[in-house]
Design goal:
The chain is mostly helical and about 240 residues long. About 70% of the residues lie in helices and about 0% in strands. The protein starts with a helix and ends with a helix.
Length: about 240
């Protein structure tokens, strides 16, 4: 019944024009990365308010929302899950939510869903459990773009804590990824490394700048000086 209430409330808050714009923005046409995704036109800040209202939704309810074809249902579920993880007091509870995320990540299937959750749950959990980070490398080998994006975005938490090894290793693993969304994600992660330690990023670029996709390179050097950006782009 609670899930039905959430769906009904989101439906009442929907807007046809916003839905049409979102469908184009998230590339839902045939052959595009978001093919088949459906929108009802609810803005993210509004979804956050709904998520807060239903913050005690049981995991089976979150699971049901993640299985919905409607984007806002899944994003609201992700917001509830992230909020719950961040407020979890015990390691056991965090582990349970981390595993739940991995078990039902099939519903985390667009870039906004990934980018708003991967580092906050997967990255945060693995920050303290280095022995389990092999899962990121398995996901980086996946044919599913969202698994690969979760893998690299999760390392944002490592970067913020001064750890670059997994970001750099995964970037090497994903450096030939043909998908534009992955090239941007890897470049974004590398840029964040450079913001903390530019020498480490430049060492990586000195090895890979000549062959890495230009989109990835542009993102990686975005915070460099004009002179340094020109240097790497010319290479």
């Amino acid at each position: 019944m609670t899930v039905a209430k959430i769906k009904a409330e989101l439906a009442s808050l929907g807007n046809v024009e916003i839905a049409a714009h979102s469908a184009k923005f998230f590339k839902t046409a045939k052959g595009q990365y978001g093919e088949g995704d459906r929108f009802i036109g609810v803005r993210v800040p509004v979804q956050r308010k709904v998520a807060q209202q239903y913050k005690t939704l049981p995991l089976n309810g979150i699971q049901e929302l993640l299985r919905s074809a409607i984007h806002e249902h899944r994003l609201t579920a992700v917001i509830i899950l992230v909020n719950r993880y961040q407020k979890a007091k015990s390691l056991k509870e965090k582990e349970k939510l981390f595993q739940f995320y991995l078990d039902y990540k099939a519903g985390i299937n667009n870039w906004d869903l990934v980018d708003s959750s991967a580092h906050k749950i997967v990255g945060n959990y693995l920050l303290a459990h280095k022995e389990k980070r092999a899962i990121l490398y398995h996901m980086a080998d996946s044919t599913n773009i969202w698994d690969r994006r979760i893998a690299i975005i999760a390392t944002m938490t490592f970067i913020n804590n001064g750890e670059f090894t997994d970001t750099l290793n995964l970037s090497e693993k994903l450096i030939d990824d043909p998908h534009d969304l992955m090239q941007k994600a890897v470049g974004w992660a590398l840029r964040e490394v450079g913001k903390v330690d530019q020498k480490t990023l430049e060492k990586f670029l000195n090895k890979h700048a000549k062959t890495m996709p230009r989109t990835m390179l542009r993102y990686a050097i975005e915070k460099f000086t004009t002179e340094r950006r020109k240097f790497y782009m010319q290479r």
